[in-house]
Specification:
By secondary structure, the protein is of the alpha/beta class. About 30% of the residues lie in helices and about 20% in strands. The protein has a domain of about 130 residues: P-loop containing nucleotide triphosphate hydrolases (Rossmann fold). The protein contains 11 helices and 10 strands. It is globular and about 50 Å long. Bound molecules: adenosine-5'-diphosphate and magnesium ion.
């Protein structure tokens, strides 16, 4: 193995209490369950421009999967194709029992309610309280009529529990805009959990955070994967973060998946082909 300087080599120290790397269920064990996401032969094209070509992907309960690839390799498009937001030319996409490429009217909303999403820029509503931002996660899948009555006390109780889980219950009443980036991303993760998602997609969730916060946010996501049995697909542009915080790594190059292996079997040298003649990823 090439020696890789791992940002936040103290990852185990920031892992949720009671769980160490040695406790983690092996990838082989995780794979004995049925996948929650199954992608086969996926081709996505914008007009004549093929963006994803022949992509296969399975996501199993409980695993944290890092998605790597140079800028423009198709990472965000792959995530969008899992929620029916990309023009699929051929292939199949199944997510939590939904045939995404062949959804009937109304099923798209249900599908999206099953997929929690976390974004680079957090996408919170800045002037609303942290608690209200988390509560908006409960609106997924609800029609406009459900908005009229506001949130139930059960919703509020659950939102507060989730804020406690992500470590910022004491910030519940302050406007989201007053939080630091790391705290805002924790709110966004609590909001995603409010949906009771079957799958979590996190597109560059730590790209706006400093390395120490990046480690803790990724460990939070990994703990959710492990404890809740939710697969988390997380795109990253810092290789050491992917190597430190994932069970498996999949890698795209020009829309083709050229890497798919357990993280324990990969190192920086094995991932180098993803970036050959491309903009280099961040090394720290
Ligand atoms: N809505 C769109 N219309 C046309 N081309 C797009 C659209 N979205 C993405 N692309 C193209 O698809 C390719 C992959 O983009 P993207 O999935 O955003 O890559 P990444 O997330 O890996 O940086 C790029 O060449 C991009 O220009
Ligand atoms: Mg992207």
């Amino acid at each position: 193995m090439t020696a890789v300087k791992v940002a936040g080599a103290d990852a185990a120290a920031s892992a949720p209490a009671g769980r160490t790397a040695a406790d983690r269920t092996s990838t082989a064990e995780l794979r004995q369950s049925l996948p929650l996401v199954t992608v086969r032969g996926l081709k996505v094209a914008y007009d004549q421009h093929t963006v994803l070509d022949g992509v296969d992907l399975d996501l199993f309960p409980g695993e944290m999967v890092a998605l790597l690839g140079a800028s423009g390799s198709g990472k965000s498009t792959l995530m969008r194709s899992l929620t029916g937001f990309a023009p699929v030319a051929s292939g199949s996409v199944r997510v939590a029992g939904h045939d995404v490429t062949n959804l009937r009217r109304g099923e798209l909303r249900t599908l999206r309610s099953h997929v929690g999403q976390v974004f680079q820029q957090f996408n919170l509503i800045p002037r609303l309280s942290v608690l209200t931002n988390v509560l908006t996660g409960a609106l997924h899948g609800a029609g406009p009529v459900n908005l009229v009555g506001g949130f139930t006390s059960a919703h509020r109780k659950r939102a507060l529990e989730l804020l406690d889980r992500v470590g910022i219950a004491h910030k519940a009443t302050v406007p989201a805009r007053s939080l630091s980036g790391g705290q805002q991303q924790r709110v966004a993760i609590a909001r995603a959990l409010m949906q009771q998602p079957r799958v979590i997609l996190a597109d560059e969730p730590v790209a706006s955070l400093d390395p120490r916060l990046a480690d803790s946010v990724l460990e939070l996501l990994r703990g959710i994967a492990t404890q809740d049995g939710i697969p988390v697909l997380v795109s990253l542009h810092v290789l050491p973060l992917a190597l430190a915080h994932s069970d498996r790594i999949v890698g795209l190059r020009h829309g083709e998946m050229i890497v798919s292996d357990a993280t324990s079997r990969l190192d920086a040298a094995a991932l180098a082909p993803l970036y050959e003649n491309e903009e280099q990823p961040d090394e720290h």
